[in-house]
Amino acid sequence: MPEYTAATLVAMTVAAVVDLRILRTRLLTQSTFWLSIGIMFFFQIFVDGWLTKLSSPIVIYAAEHASGIRVFFDSPIEDFGFGFALILGVCSMWDALAARERRRGGHP
Amino acid sequence: MDRFQYLAVMAACVVVTLPLEFVLGARVWRRPRRLLASIAAVSGPFLVWDVVAIARGHWTFSERYTTGWIVALDVPVEEVSFFLVIPLCALLTLGAVRRMRGDGSD
Predict the structure, then answer these.
(1) Does A12 touch chain B (CB under 8 A)?
(2) Looking at beta carbons, which residues of chain B come within 8 Å of A51?
């Protein structure tokens, strides 16, 4: 498997496991989270597409390190897995920190 | 100005998502400590991934559309901006959707 493809699958798994087993936010069970990530993926199509479009790429991917599957505006499909891990990761940290603040009786 | 294109895309993401905070009430910018802590915890590992991916040649950056300013370990300033801006946009989206749906999680 190409390295970027493998790294993406590992990142998605790590983000999910950290959320489910360590931070325990329940984000993955919330329809609000899935709606939010759907909205973010919609905008990723254009932002990532602007960075990756093969007509004038800003970020250039080595063919041998990715699956070669390009979607929308030539974004490597791996970028969406990368996005999933990044989005889940930060939302999960946010909720975990919010929960900790509540337990400490800090912010309402 | 072409070389500021990547940075301009990131700046546009910050500007375009401001209404999520100030119109829809996402309440992300107004929790700066939680915001910075969340971004640091996640973007740290992602920047390590970026360093390795750049070193192994998984991706490179257009000289035409980037400034050429390197922060460290061959990581361009644009990538650092990406890992500050995109998580911010994610939190604003989640926060705004929660407010719109009356979902109390905060």
Answers:
(1) no
(2) 6, 9
Note whether A90 contacts B87, CB cutoff 8 Å.
yes
Q: Which residues contact A40 (CB under 8 A, 6 or more apart)?
A: A83, A87, B89, B90, B93
Provide the Cα torsion A47, A50, A53, A57; round to 10°.
-120
Determine the residue type at A66.
A
Establish if A50 touches chain B: CB-CB under 8 angstroms: yes
Of B13, B49, B90, the CB nearest to A90: B90
State the ipTM, two decimals: 0.96
Residue-wise pLDDT tens digits, A27-72 = 999 999 999 999 999 999 999 999 999 999 999 999 999 999 999 9
Tokens 């559309």 -> residue: B65
Cα Rg of chain B (Å, integer): 16
DSSP category for residue A105: T
Q: Residue B90 has what DSSP assignment?
A: H
